[in-house]
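Lab notebook: predicted structure, single chain.

Context: the supervisor wants predicted structures on file for every construct in the current expression panel, including those that have not yet been purified. This is the next one on the list. No modifications to the sequence; it matches the entry in the shared construct table.
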Amino acid sequence: MKKILKQKWFKYSIIDLIIGFILILLMLIYQNGSSLLHWINAMQVAGIILFSAGWLFFINNEGIFDVAVYGTKYFLKSLVGKRMKHSLYETRVNKKLTPSLVYITLWIHGIVWLLVSLAIYYL
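Prediction complete. Output recorded below exactly as produced.
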């Protein structure tokens, strides 16, 4: 049991499940109801948000946002008369990547929440 608790995928899974439950509770509060349809909607929103967060982590790892973020920082610093300490290349090389297990577990839990909500709805 201790081996499982020390594994990273288990820790990420617990965090994802807690975030999913919090999102579901927030959606139930927002919808001001607790019927079956409210639960299904809350699970679908939680699944979509978890999957989208995993997708954002993935595309951030691939460097899609690097140019936009660097350009925005460069522009804002130039307004106050400062210069960037590093070039775009140095910024990309020194960037810390998110472990792939983070976005994979987010994708899995997002899909699970969506499938559970669809199973409840259609069965």
